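Recap quiz, item 2
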Amino acid sequence: MRESGKKFGATNSPCAACKLLRRKCAESCVFAPYFPADEPHKFANVHKVFGASNVNKMLQDLPVHQRGDAVSSIVYEANARIRDPVYGCVGAISTLQQQIDALQAQLALAQAEVVHHKMSQAASIILLPHAKPT
Amino acid sequence: MRESGKKFGATNSPCAACKLLRRKCAESCVFAPYFPADEPHKFANVHKVFGASNVNKMLQDLPVHQRGDAVSSIVYEANARIRDPVYGCVGAISTLQQQIDALQAQLALAQAEVVHHKMSQAASIILLPHAKPT
């Protein structure tokens, strides 16, 4: 990381990442736009799960316009792993998959009921050809 | 990690993790049961995304009977991040959430249709009290 001697932002505070890593926060710091000093836990979990150098590399490998989304997903994954050290956000995937299975079963039942009603209606029209509303 | 001098497994081969990290694979190696030598890519992606020392710590912090599930979810997350460096497995969560929204909308429609048919049926019984099948 290039050290320009000029701190990021107007406050001269190092970003949450550089503060945790106890290093100078250069103007070119890859973390500074996404890990402000007033959100220290946001970076702490990311560092604990992925490691600062891995995240630095992941962000450097992406164009700037995609880094915000990448940080959001990395923070989400890190928080999920801290909450659930065994399954992390794969636990959420599993829960959502179960919800999909349940909804698909409910939908199949409801659609079968619609078909049943339509067939009953069609049958009643055939069986009562002269019936008219009173 | 304690080095016992005795290699893990019958083949004396280091596990995929120790091979990649170019270190001796002790009998007590925390990676060896989950990263066999014949699956080198499984650990390579995990190391690239999470870092070996973070994963080592995550596994050490878990009881042995939960480590297999933790490794599966970590491998899943790492592979997802390699495939999609911006969204990782959060992309899958987003896709599943959209599927759930679509299924809930379809289910609401089907259930409304069922209610509509039931009401029509009830109305026809009231309107045609003397109608009998021919």
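Chain B has two domains: 1-83, 87-134.
Residues 1-83 of chain B form one domain.
End of item.
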